[in-house]
Design goal:
alpha/beta; eight-stranded mixed β-barrel; about 45% helix; 33 helices; five-stranded parallel sheet; about 950 residues
Amino acid sequence: MSAKPRILLVDDDPMVRLLVRQMLQADGYELIETENGRAGLEQFIAAEPDLVLLDVMMPEMDGFTCLQGMRAASDKNIPIVMMTAIEDTQAVEDAFRLGATDFIGKPIQWPLLPHRISYVLRSHRTTQSLIEQQSLLKQSEQRFRDLVESIGNEYFLYSHDTERIFTYLGPSVEHILGYKPDELYCDCFDIATNNPINRLARTYTEQCLAGIKPPNYEVEVRSKDGSLRVLSLNESPMLDDHGRVVAVNGLAHDITEMRSTQQALADSEERLRLSMQAAKQGFYDLNPQTGNMITNAEYASMLGYDPASFDATIDSWIMRLHPDDRQRVSDTYQRYIAGELAEYRLEYRQRCADDSWKWILSIGSIVERDANNQPVRMLGTHTDITDSKTAAERLNLLAKVFENSGEAIFLCDPDTRIVSSNQAYTTITGYRAEEVLQQTPSILDARHLDLNHYQRIWQALRENGYWQGEIWDTRKNGETYPAWLGISAMYNTDGMISHYIGIFSDITERKAAEAQIEYLARHDPLTNLPNRTLLRDRFDQAMAHAVRNNTLVGLLFLDLDHFKNINDTMGHDVGDRLLQGIAERLVQCVREVDTVCRQGGDEFIIILTDIPDIDAITQIVLKILDQLTQPFVIEGVTLCTSFSIGVSLYPNDGLNFHGLLNKADTAMYSAKNEGRNTFRFFSNDMNLASIERMNIENGLRMALKRNELRLHYQPQYSIHNNMVIGAEALLRWQPENSAMIPPAKFIPIAEDNGMIVPIGDWVLREACRQNKVWHDAGIKLLVTVNISALQFKRGNLLESVQAALAESGLEPQYLELELTESVLMFDTNAVINTIAQLRGLGVSFAIDDFGTGYSSLSYLKRFAVNKLKIDQSFIRDLTSGKAEDTAIVKAILQLGDTLGLLTLAEGVETKEQAEQLSLLGCRKAQGFYWNQPLPADEFAQLFTPDYPKPLA
């Protein structure tokens, strides 16, 4: 890049080019200007600028096409910044996908333009430098690997990530293990054996992953041909700039032959030791008359004693006998000495020097007698048979395990004829042991198996000596069942197969459980409808079918209206039963080739397959709406439902599942906004509305923190003298650097997402604070604050009002809370209790829009409100001659007088309306006839002497 960066500007607007030229040339940039995309592409190729400013909307060739051409014409990755006034996220996404570096929206903030250009150029230089550094690092790594791989075929270099997955293996791995490097991109312990040394190896690997270099250690692995190899590993952790382990590098050394040689030497030494031990028989020379006994050193050593100090007397020998054996041994010895037994042969336990016990086989013979034929010398041997006794006990235990195992076990000769089977074999197959003796088990009978499967089993046995897997067998009664079989070949000392041992279990229940788990993984457990996982598969099938047949796929997003009210009032059990009933009706409304899915909660998705045209989808949707509006009777209660349905079409609205689902969701919300119990097809206008709603919702979450909310005050007048008697606090939202957002747009969104609760608390505090300011200035008014239904449901209205009054110091009688009739219909007892507590504080209540909802004398009496506000819809036509509107207003006024309630008319816009209200007996009103809602400072001016008063 030159010292004076060259900027190529492509824009058909001469004013934009002029302003860019002035801003950039002042900062030392060299500017190349073109007025269309075609000329811009030519200059890009000829001049090779350092950066391109590219307009999107241009004649002849638009910015996107020009961007494609520039990226195709050069591989230098020159930064290209798009400029556009289009407010379309898709356009932004398209630009970045085609290779745009940055995006500048129009109108351009001109003072910031040079800084933005400088930032993009710096970022580009940094990125290029990083790419060059990465290339150098890769070259360095490759040189290191080449160096290591050249040290010999018995070494190979490897790397694995923090999940222990191999990411690199040197080529020598194939020479050592038989695997090509790309065959081992798996967990590094997948090829490890069950050798105990591998437990320590795992510990060292985890230590390395924790950032601590372990000592060199060994691991035993199974090579591709099944043979075992021992590797010595030298591992080191690789750390990032923050000291976190990102990988492990290691060098493996094949030491199999060395370990084999060492093991052979150890085995030879062990055989020599065992031979010497076997030859070390304990000998004794006993005089039965005196009890004196001479023993050799081997006998003392056998028991762990020092031969030099070993007490070899007969009495000591008796004391070393196990207490449980002492009497038996003594009796046998005495009987032999007395000539009652032909031979002396005993097995007993003797105490060792360390207080342990050893089994001893004692054999002896009388070799010398005196003149009276009494034995005077007895010679014999002591043999340590502890190991053989332990082995015998182990064999006995193994026999019990064999017979009592819950898994079927059979032992076959080399011709696969059964020589033994256990009870579990009989239990599972139905064949008694004598019935299968010398018979080939059906589980290995080629006549009962698939030929290919049979051949694979025996090939594995020939090659590896073992096979394990799932197989189907037949019981004695002819019933087939799945079994999990493991079969091993047993070899004699000549390396010939002597037996096959098979172990299998009946996995019928496990297979059923797996099938159930598989079903539950793809279906909703409440309705048994497909879930999102299965729905996606069905959509892919429907899409492929539509492509072949040139038809449509309809994606319907259904949302049950007001389902939460049913759960809250009737309970979740009734709600679940209702969802099940809805699922049944939905399935009946579509064809077998269509798919109905419960996405969760009260949302359902339907895929309509192979639809010829939009009219066909409309008919199906109308049928669904008709069926779902029919009442449901659940536990004796009749429930009426309605659905809002959004529809998107493949390929008209998109080519992928998630995009179509989002668009169907958008259409569903459009249906909700238009009154519910209806459906809407997706349109791009909805997408814009959805984006607008999302922007409002996101902005609204920050509005309180940014202090963007305002209160305007609608003056309330006494009609007969036009005096201000109160004010209604009305919420306004003024985002920073943006136009004020109408309440009709953001308040319903705040109601939907719950933000109305904290916003309502702020309104209460601000209205009370402002009213106290007016009171302190001598203007004592009643201020009315609107209360949302959600503040009753989810907020803590009593504490909120108490806090607002306490913070402001306002007297409670100057605060009026305005409720809609829908609030009064919610959880009546809770509402009555809250209103009573607030009235106890001195706060008054008004009912807004009276006469438009469920107006009832009973709840007016129960809720004890103070004021009725006559809805503006009745005031609007008061002077048009419609007798019914006059009658309604008159009736409300009379009702208020009868019940002792104040009345106030809303929406008075003309003098004639005010006069008519006065004639009907209405004393208080508000509306544009007097004033629009005013900011607090303008509202205070109403009480200045020179402020113009409305005409009487």
